[in-house]
Amino acid sequence: MKSASKVVRRVAAVVSAVVTAAALTLTGATPASAANYYYELPYPAGESYMVTQGPGGSFSHTDAYNRYAWDFGLPANYEVSASQAGTIVYSDWSPYWQNGIEVIIRHSNGTCTHYAHLNQSFYWPGDWVPQGRIVGYSGSTGASTAPHLHFQVINCSTRVGISAAIQGWVPWTGTWPVSVNYYA
What we know:
Shape: globular
CATH class: Mainly Beta
Number of helices: 2
Oligomer: single chain
């Protein structure tokens, strides 16, 4: 009997490992990494907007501050959503005129997300916002030639861009990623 129960336990362990591996393959991340390093698209779920300039773009994403940024072709005064829960660090006209009105959110993993060229921001520094919460409206403030959202993950202290994925991939210029970022 003992050998039969050993076989059953081993089979159960193998099945459990296979199911876990399949789940990781399908989701692309463990729940802990999803909470810490998974960023949603910064606009409402079910919607799709063109990436007008992706990371390493030749127009304005060439320096350390913007090299990993995305520009999304959102229309003016459209909802900009927090890509991950966090605390508002900055929400006003930027001290760097090129950014216009900006929102910066610090996340539990120590990184910040940056939303620039907004027409309006809604929260104050110190406010906590859940993932999916509308934090402002898109616009064309600062060094912008048309309404859009400039979005990136940054080092909170230096504002230098950090390589990141959104919803598990890195959308490139010309793609139309569909958001799964539900309202909070």
